[in-house]
Amino acid sequence: MNIHRRRNLSKIILYYYFLVGFVLHFVTTNYGRKQVSTSFGIVRGETVNPEVDDLPAVTQFLGIPYGVAPTGQYRFNMAISAAKWTHQPKDAFLLSNVCIQSGLPKLSETEALKSMSAQKFDHIHRILPFLKPQSEDCLYMNLFVPERLERHKTQYGQQLSVLVLIHGDDYGWGSGNAFNATILSASGQTIVVTLNYRLGVYGFMGRCEQNSCNGNSGLSDVVAALKMLSNILPSFGGDPTSITLMGWGSGASLVSLLMASPITQPKNRLFRRAILLDGTALAPWAMSMHPQQYFMKIAETLDVS
Ligand SMILES: *[C@@H]1O[C@H](CO)[C@@H](O)[C@H](O)[C@H]1NC(C)=O
């Protein structure tokens, strides 16, 4: 009798537990979510408030894959465009992994301040929490899409301009994930895109044969992302003919290389304007004139020569 009652009670508790769980689930999954149908498939983002007075809401689409994971047989190769996901919608609520990080500067303050400015030291401290988890499977981008203000719509028409951020930091570390672009996109009425690209040896090692070298797969990642963007931006209300690339440091060097590449030609133009902050490909640190020696060193270290 007693046992029987207890069983009933636990059944009731279980029942309410599920009911409450279901209601909570329903509330949290349907509040502030938005889905967009693109040529790659449906993608679901989360609408957030930038927490600044008078700024409109922004929908963030986090961790959209733009390239095939460059792992295994694809490691070091040029980026391959991502596969479509037409069979089911993709949830884009969470930031992706960042690419494998290398050469992060020393973080003991006394050591660090000997070799870098206080601003750079602060910058590293601010972004450090975002530089994990790391994975070779890291070719993802984030889109921040603002609600339109009426006055902006009447003045500038239906489509939004787009700003793509190419992060910097020695070709070796950093990630687009460290930059929350909600305020920038809401106040600028611009779609802002942040992205990861391969770093260090994964992205920029020159692979050398007898007389020739090739490499820069990290740069090919950026091109793959731009290709996908020119395809999907209209679905988000963006104008693919009005893309600005903005990079700083080694990111500015990458942008200036892209400015000299065929992707600026009228027929396959993937961006329109560029902003270079604190760097170009002509800077003395920007390029290695003798990549072969580094390739050999790595091969020796790994004992594969
Ligand atoms: C960016 O900031 C907003 C407002 O503080 C927050 O709601 C949102 O989750 C943040 N996005 C990311 C990717 O951290």
Number of helices: 9
Low-confidence stretches: 26-30
Helicity level, as a percent range? 25-40%
- Elements, N to C (H/E): HEEEEHHEHEHEHEEHEHEH
* Bound heterogens, unique: 2-acetamido-2-deoxy-beta-D-glucopyranose
Q: What is the tally of beta strands?
A: 11
Mean pLDDT: 89
Outline, from the CA principal axes? globular
In short:
The protein is α/β, with parallel strands linked by helices and 305 residues long.
Can you put this structure into words, describing what you see?
- With about 300 residues, this protein is α/β, with parallel strands linked by helices.
- Helix content is about 35%, strand content about 20%.
- The protein contains 9 helices and 11 strands.
- The strands form 2 sheets. Strands 1, 2, 3, 4, 5, 6, 7, 10 and 11 form a 9-stranded mixed β-sheet that branches. Strands 8-9 form a two-stranded antiparallel sheet.
- Helix 8 links the parallel strand 10 and strand 11.
- The longest helix is centred in the first third of the chain and has 29 residues.
- 2-acetamido-2-deoxy-beta-D-glucopyranose binds next to strand 3.
- Keywords: Membrane, Transmembrane, Transmembrane helix.
- Pfam families: COesterase (PF00135).
